[in-house]
Amino acid sequence: MYLTVIIALTGLSIDGATGRKYFDKGVNELEMNEFIVSAIQLVGLFTIILLILTFTLGDLIEKLFELQKKWLYMAALTAFATIMIRVRLNQWQIRNMPVPYISLQAILSFLNFALSIIMVIIWLRGAAGRIEAQIASASAIALLAAHSLSKSGLSWRPIWRPNYIREILKFGVPLIPHVLGTFLIFSFDRLIVTKEMGLAETGKYMVAVQLSMVVTLIFDGINKAYAPWLYANLSNDEQEQRLSSSQNTYKVFAVIFVMALVAFLTVPHITKWIVGEEFRGAGESAKFLVSGQMINGMYQMVSNYLLFHRLTRTISLITIATGVIHVLLIILLVPIWGAVGASVTFFATMAVRFFITWLIALHLNAMPKYRNYF
Predict the structure, then answer these.
(1) Rounded to 5 degrees, what angle do the CA atoms 54, 111, 182 make?
(2) How confident is the model at residue 163 (pLDDT cuts 50, 70, 90)?
(3) Which H or E element spans position 143?
(4) Burial status of residue 138 (CB atoms within 10 A of its CB: 0-12, 13-18, 19 or more)
(5) Nearest to residue 154, comparing CAs of 21, 17, 31?
(6) For 175, which DSSP code?
(7) DSSP per position, 1-12
(8) Distance spanning both ends of the chain, measured CA to CA
(9) Which letter, b or e, does each residue of 83-110 get, where b requires 16 or more Cβ atoms within 10 Å of its Cβ?
(10) 44 touches 80 (CB < 8 A)
(11) Across the chain, how many H-helices and E-strands are there?
(12) How far apart (Å, rounded) are the C-alpha atoms in residues 344 and 348?
């Protein structure tokens, strides 16, 4: 949880900023180099500030998160390493280079898994071993990512561009509430379920959550391929090509809607078959969570239009508003319906966030209107 928070605070979504910069008209590789260097400089500065704050306020943070101070320092460095990896991956993504992208992801996952097994099971390091594995794997792959960026001519050129620093801050700072709000939406439910229903019910609920994560992985992959294609279309001066992006988006919406309806009807039966009778209660939660994740996939597609136009403040306001709705509904429904109430809340939150984002994207002309009735 602490690592997630500080990645949001120090990372400033610079992977998104650098990815978006690539599609600016007239931007060459030298300017991309300078922009990426400026982004890394900014994150490095924020990391140093975080380390100083940890040194001065470490005791307070230690009590708040119940973590030893050494892990707070390591978390700051791991956050920097994670951000470096994301920048490298994003540059491959926008250049349509799936092989190195997948390769680096696979190496990171394998190293993290292997070190975790060694630390926890063989060396009996317990929870500390799991954290140490994450630190070591992220640090090692970050060095590899930095070398790859340097070899590609995309970083390490000694420059100072205040205009790029301001551009990055303008893009990233408004997204901080969005990242933190998203974390709240995807985490608050299990805390309330545990408090109101106990660990046994939380266990069943987490089975449903894990099943819905399959959908998350699928749509995350789709979005990684979709975003560069969309940005390229929106950067095009030809109005017809820009309009076709909306048309294709609506076609995908129709497919996802049918998939969500089928999932809602079939997931409870599939869940019983996968997890067995002792977790049969997970099926009712799973159908709402899986359908909600599909709607979240639609939201990601629409939010890309806002990100392209750098309307990051708007995205944050939407997330904050729906986050408040999410928390209120969770508190209201879980005592009445239990874990199913949490899953219904997630589905409702995803639907509300999608429709609000869609309507605002149309209203602000961020999403091209290809039909008169829009």
Answers:
(1) 50
(2) very high
(3) helix 126-151
(4) buried
(5) 31
(6) G
(7) -HHHHHHHHHHT
(8) 41
(9) bbbbbbbbbbbbeeeeeebeebeeebee
(10) yes
(11) 14, 0
(12) 6
**Dist. CA 362–CA 374, nearest whole Å:** 8
What confidence tier does 106 reach under pLDDT thresholds 50, 70, 90? very high
Q: Compute the distance between CA of residue 277 and CA of residue 32 in angstroms, rounded to an integer.
A: 55
> pLDDT tens for residues 284-321?
899 999 999 999 999 999 999 999 999 999 999 999 99
With a CB cutoff of 8 Å and minimum separation 6, the contacts of 302 are 249, 354, 357, 358, 361, 367
Read off the pLDDT of residues 316-331 as tens digits, 9 standing for 90 and up: 999 999 999 999 999 9
> Which residues make Cβ contacts (< 8 Å) with residue 209, sequence separation at least 6?
190, 289
CB neighbour class for 28 (10 Å; exposed up to 12, middle 13-18, buried from 19): exposed
Backbone angle region of 213, left / alpha / beta, with phi > 0 → left and psi within -120 to 50 → alpha: alpha
Chain length of the chain: 374
Is the pLDDT at 138 greater than 50, yes or no?
yes
Provide long-range contacts, Cβ within 8 A and 24+ apart, for 235-241: 235/23, 235/24, 235/25, 239/368
Instruction: Please identify which residue in the block is written with the tokens 């039966």.
Output: 269
Q: What residue type is 232 in one-letter code?
A: A
Contacts 24+ apart (CB under 8 A), 310-317: 310/20, 310/170, 310/171, 311/364, 311/366, 312/13, 312/171, 312/172, 312/174, 312/175, 312/178, 313/174, 314/360, 314/364, 315/174, 315/175, 315/178, 315/357, 316/174, 316/175, 316/176, 316/177, 316/178, 316/181
Non-local CB neighbours of 365 within 8 Å, separated by 6+ positions: none
Q: List CB contacts of 181: < 8 A, sequence separation 6 or more.
A: 316, 319, 320, 322, 323
Sign for the pseudo-dihedral over CA of 94, 96, 98, 104 = negative
Sequential DSSP letters for 191-208: HHHHHHH-HHHHHHHHHH
Tell me the two tokens of residue 310.
Answer: 């750098």
What 3-state DSSP class applies to 176?
A: helix
Nearest CA-CA partner of 349 in 174, 184, 179:
184
Q: Calculate ∠ Cα 193-194-200, nearest 5°.
A: 100
